[in-house]
Amino acid sequence: MVTIKDVAKHAGVSVTTVSRVLNNSRHPISPETRERVLAAIKELGFYPNAMARSLQLHETKTIGLILPDIANPYYPGIVRGVEDVAHEKGYTVILCNTDRSRERTKAYLRVLREKRVDGVIFTGGGAVEDASREHFFDHGQIATVVIGRHKADLPAVQVDNVQSAQEAVEHLIKLGHRRIATITGPAVSTTARDRLEGYRRAMEAEGIAIESAWIVEGDFEFNSGYQAVGKLPLQGPEKITAIFAHNDLMAIGAIKALQEKGLKVPEDVAVVGFDNIPLASFITPALSTVAVPVYDLGVTAMRVLAELLAGRKVPPVTVLATHLEVRESSLLK
After folding, report:
1. What is the pTM of this model?
2. What pLDDT, on a 0 to 100 scale, did the predictor assign at position 228?
3. What CATH fold (topology level) applies to the domain 60-158+294-321?
4. Which residue intervals define the domain HTH lacI-type in the entry (predicted)?
5. Collapsing DSSP states into helix, strand and coil, what is residue 244?
6. What are the structural domain ranges in the chain?
7. Strands 119-123, 288-291: parallel, antiparallel or unpaired by DSSP?
8. How far apart are CA 199 and CA 294, in angstroms?
9. Which contiguous run of DSSP H or E holds residue 320?
10. Which site in 37, 50, 261, 300 is 20 to 30 Å from 222, CA atoms measured?
């Protein structure tokens, strides 16, 4: 392995001079000497020791991104947004997929500490709560930004899940639906609780009494939406005529179950989802859904983190706008 001493010998300069060139030191170095050092670095294929450099500069130029399920098509957009800004600002991203496991979250938190990352971005899956239990935020040593609404007193980038869900359900009510069911996320999820609150507000504003049979808990996955349909009243005078699912995966699962039962969407049951994942516009019928600016969530979170790392003040909460993308699953042709 080529060392800094090898570069110094090849260029005919001291190790200190090579170090000054690598770190763009303000110490005066002649253009000829700088070119000779850079040429030696290129000829020998030398790469600086990142760990040694980080100890000297007190930064590693790395950040951790903790997310619950990389297989969920909601999250790659966030990852891309974080990555794009991180790259622009010279940071490397360490991706940590927890699979919604507290043990995996603990393991990743330990690794990020050991690697001395400069900052961490959390998104979804209860990881913030797990990190709080592990006292990850106690000493404020690692700059942190969260995507979503959390109890932790940390800078947050989020959408208004209550208002967005309310608007989705109001859309169904305006179409004449009153027996509207909802397939929720896990009860422990802040996102799910907020979207359920939006559903309740829309129904109560129209004087619609919500029946307990209309609320079925899922887990944000395809299969839970599919299974939830089997628990809803679909026949007789008590049948529901619309479903608001807390995310698109469950909405798509619900549509499949409805179709297998011989019911037409939206003629028999209208369906609205949440997130606007790429698949939403390609299924049949195309899914009406709340469009979340996932890429912008990632971009904004990384920009806020960069501001923190630069020692600048950041807003406690940044809220990005959503909009309802109306498609075939809720509108009759």
Report:
1. 0.82
2. 98
3. Rossmann fold (3.40.50)
4. 2-57
5. strand
6. 4-48, 60-158+294-321, 161-293
7. unpaired
8. 22
9. strand 317-320
10. 300
β-pairing verdict for 119-123 and 156-159: unpaired
Q: Which residues contact 1 (CB under 8 A, 6 or more apart)?
A: none
Classify residue 80 as exposed, middle or buried by CB count within 10 Å of its CB (0-12, 13-18, 19+). Answer: middle
- Helix, strand, or coil here: 271? strand
pLDDT of residue 49: 61
Contact 327, 288 (CB under 8 A): yes
* 24: number of Cβ within 10 Å: 9
| Residue 102 exposure: Cα atoms within 13 Å on the Cβ side | 6
Q: Exposed (0-12), middle (13-18) or buried (19+): which is 175, by Cβ within 10 Å? A: middle
Q: Report the relative pairing of strands 317-320 and 156-159 from DSSP bridges.
A: parallel
Structure letter (DSSP) for residue 92: E
**What pLDDT shows up at residue 292?**
98
- What distance in Å separates the CA atoms of residue 289 and residue 272, rounded to the nearest whole number? 5
Q: What are phi and psi of 62, to 5 degrees?
A: -125, 150
| Predicted local confidence at residue 333, as pLDDT | 57
Query: In which residue ranges of the chain is pLDDT below 70?
Result: 48-58, 125, 134, 138-140, 333
CA distances from 228 to 225, 243, 265, 271 (A): 5, 11, 16, 13
CATH 3.40.50.2300 given to domain 161-293: yes
Write the CATH number of the domain with boundaries 4-48: 1.10.260.40
